[in-house]
Amino acid sequence: xxxxxxxxxxxxxxxxxxxxxxxxxxxxxxxxxxxxxVLISGGGRCNFTNKNISSEHYxxxxxxxxxxxxxxxxxxxxxxxxxxxxxxxxxxxxxxxxSFDARNMVDYLSSETKIAFEIEVNRIERDGEIWVIHxxxxxxxxxxxxxxxxxxxxxPELGVSDFGYRFAQQLNxxxxxxxxxxxxxxxxxxxxxxxxxxxxxxxxxxxxxxxxTIRDDVLLTHYGLSGPALLAASLWWQENKPMEINWxxxxxxxxxxxxxxxxxxxxxxxxxxxxxxAEIFAEDQPTAxxxxxxxxxxxxxHRLTKFTFIPxxxxxxxxxxxxxxxxxxxxxxxxxxxxxxxxxxxxxxxxVDVTGELGGYNLHWAWASAAAAAHAINGxxx
Length: 382
Ligand SMILES: Cc1cc2nc3c(=O)[nH]c(=O)nc-3n(C[C@H](O)[C@H](O)[C@H](O)COP(=O)(O)OP(=O)(O)OC[C@H]3O[C@@H](n4cnc5c(N)ncnc54)[C@H](O)[C@@H]3O)c2cc1C
Description:
It is a single chain. Strand 1 (about 1-10), helix 1 (about 10-20) and strand 2 (about 25-30) form a beta-alpha-beta unit. The protein has about 375 residues and is α+β, with helices and mostly antiparallel strands. The strands form 6 sheets. Strands 1, 2, 7, 8, 9, 10 and 20 form a 7-stranded mixed β-sheet that branches. The protein has 2 domains: about 1-180 and about 320-375, FAD/NAD(P)-binding domain (3-Layer(bba) Sandwich); about 185-315, Elongation Factor Tu (Ef-tu), domain 3. Helix 1 (about 10-20) packs parallel to helix 13 (about 360-375). About 30% of the residues lie in helices and about 25% in strands. The protein contains 13 helices and 21 strands. The site of flavin-adenine dinucleotide has 39 residues, from helix 1, helix 2 and helix 13. Flavin-adenine dinucleotide binds near residues 10, 41, 120, 155 and 350.
């Protein structure tokens, strides 16, 4: 049998694409279960989309690429899809939408879809108009349209492969550099030493990384810095580049010092920072506020508002939520995800160089890119 479409990977994007397709379709999955990352996402509750979906929440070599797919499949479309299947959701802070049960979502997505499990695709070749998917020790699968939905490299214990990237290279497409993202960062010894004593303190900061500024909580730990702000920053961080923390965002410290010359630095900082952290900053600056000269004042303001450090590394793919980078978007149609130089082949989901922030943006990209490809394959009709 020749299938209209074969989809490689039964994850979020592959399953939705299959669900929306009209013609005959087979999904080939290397593990024995569908969508394991959806099942564990959001601790089983699955933060499946966000009310603030827009291109600015995505990292990509071309920040405009994702706009068309996001416009074709909005967060309302996602909510409608799952609500129609009786899957309830709730809204949390930052517009995050959580389903109550990721298992129901996966059951719904995989129902009525032909999925062949435990087939790790390693070789695909073209035979005229037909794609032949070679399966060791099993019959080959043939199809007219090919959708690559193999995801990224994070959490290797769940079953991941680099086949999507290799197949892209086979088609002469380039891969934007891959890196673990939405992941813990590792810190040099002096930073670890500095914050060890303060482990457990959490506070809202403003964190500058590259061209981005993130306002969220930082957690001080025995290995340095952690918490949502750092996790978010890992998406935008480039190796060996610095990050900068403003520990007192929104406060004009120079003005505050000006009108508090008769107070002790430790007491003043205690108004804005957790006590133990205030003591550390005050310790480095023994002079009383009224006695500080201009240089000392500038140094203090600098340390509190532009605390600069360079993470050593990320904690790697085994700890990362996603893989940044992937199939270079200039080779794909932004409207349909089809390979420009090779019609009938589509790349969707995380394997593409579009990576979202924390908050449901990655699953939304999986849904939106899947819908764009399905729409194109169906010839314009769902
Ligand atoms: C712990 C964790 C929590 C997360 N939480 C959230 C969250 O709350 N919200 C959010 O938006 N995102 C979250 N994400 C990210 C999100 O799960 C992924 O971005 C999304 O699942 C990507 O979908 P995908 O279809 O591209 O790839 P995947 O869902 O990874 O699916 C790829 C599929 O392809 C299969 N495959 C790979 N290679 C082959 C091959 N050669 N042959 C056959 N099959 C193959 C894999 O086994 C897998 O089933 C989380 C990720 C992790 C790891």
